[in-house]
Specification:
The complex is a heterodimer of chains A (about 160) and B (about 425). Chain A has about 160 residues and is an all-alpha fold. Chain A has 4 helices and no strands. Chain A has one domain. With about 425 residues, chain B is an all-alpha fold. Helices cover about 80% and strands about 0% of the residues of chain B. Classes of the chains: A mainly alpha (about 160), B mainly alpha (about 425). Chains A and B meet through α1, α2, α3 and α4 of A and α1, α2, α3, α4 and α13 of B.
Chain lengths: ~160, ~425
Amino acid sequence: MNLYRKTLEGINTAVEYTVCVLIAAMVVVVFLQVVFRFVIHSSLPWSEELSRYLMVWITFLGASIAVKRKSHIGVEVVVSLFSDVWKKIAAIFVSASLCLFFGFMVLYGEKILRTVKFQLSPAMEISMAIPYSALMTGGFLMFLHSFLQLAENITGRTVSDQ
Amino acid sequence: MTSILFGSLIFFFLVNTPIAVAIGLASLAAILWSGTIPPVVIVQKMFTAADSFPLMAVPFFILAGSLMEQGGISRRLVEFANSIVGRFSGGLAFVAIIASMFFGAISGAAVACVAAIGTILIPSMVRRGYDTPFATAVQATAGTLGVMIPPSIPMIIYGVLTGVSIGALFMGGILPGFLVGGSLMLVAWIISRKRGYKGDEKASFARIAATFKDAFFALLMPVIILGGIYGGVFTPTEAAVVAVVYGFLIGFFVYHELSLKKLKDILVTTAVGTATVMLIIATSSVFSWILTAQRVPQAVAAAMLSFSSNPIVILTLINLLLLFIGTFMETTASIIILVPVLLPVVTQIGVDPLHFGIIIVVNLAIGMVTPPLGVCLFVGCSIAGIKLEAISRAAWPFILIMIADVLLLTYLPWISTVLPKLAGIY
């Protein structure tokens, strides 16, 4: 489990740097779109599409960092009234549900790739599999993080990943 | 199918499942139960929801706000506000509210506003002898101005969802933001007078000028953003990216308070903030698609209108519902789930969609400070180091005046629509 945690930690660091680059790229692309329209008086045909696909990737990769940091908020008010045992049961149930949903995202994220990979994007004419695979990739990373949390919730070990 | 959808949603919420996943799983359960809709629709809809140019304004405004904050802007805004209103009774409470309005004109989120201004002002209020719960309550409620004063992330989401111009919504939020800001100041002033919280000495003109000069580049940002949108120069997303570049340049080269290390943290925090909002948008889009396909909005509209077709009655009921939902639910999810259901009701009784957007945003903003749940209260409490129970009593006077404001906004639509109409964009 320790090795699993360490590996995941390393993957997460890589994902953090990746989203930094993607956000920076998204800023540059949209800013270029503005500059081109006003300064050079011609519009870029690909900027809007590229920035949208960057946004899709940022969303699903960023969501995996958020799973690790437990930043996806829920409604805590009811659980806070539970006894400790029930709190633990609820926590195990929630991390299992996360695994279930993210597992679904991986399976069907892969399934949809089979349909879209032959479609080309309108402006850049790249395979639609490139933006669409963000769902499968993000889903997979989120699954890995929730699986660790599930294991930790079951074994009762506190999360020492901060 | 609808009962599976809502039943499982409520169950997942009760056990504290993250909202995005709770909504996603409830949709999945309903789709599997129906047996006729292929589940691949879920990933398809999730992709389409995230693949949106207008929504890109969300990460950009988060990023611009965080660049300005880390670039030392909050302190400068606080000092400028202090030089203007610091001398009145309860001066620092006024400073908290005015500085939050300034910050709200840069950032589109309430939590960011409480954190940015509160970190400076809650400790200074406490040092000056203000009661800690009072200081925290002022700051937490003032932070909600972050979503009323443009730019505003909830307004962007409402605009994307309904097709109402985001620029017009932004402009529509200005007067309501001033109304709420002004009434919070009124309450703060009354309480401060009673408790004898003294203000500072009157600041000299030279001091006002000096702090203004220091805050100038920060104050210019809203002018660029809003001016650009209303001048028809930028779309809101483009205005947001210009704000990012501007905030970056000011933080690095004018205020010299940004570093590459800080920049990495800012970018990652922006990604996490964006992703939590966007994942909710992604799964809620599936949820609201099922609602629409099941003709739930029509059923709700029929039920409500059979109860009464008086706009005042209907809007009052909707306000109560929004206050309740806003207290327990996250803002983005509330908007995406409620708007498709409620908008058909209100348009049938002649309510303007822009006006309705403002009503929703202000109501949900109140939800952010209503005990036992409001996010702004949590942030305020963690800054002040006090328990939620302590702040709850102190927050009520402010919550009540905000409820009065929302009723005023509901029954006087022109407060929301007059500026966009004058500007000729609505």
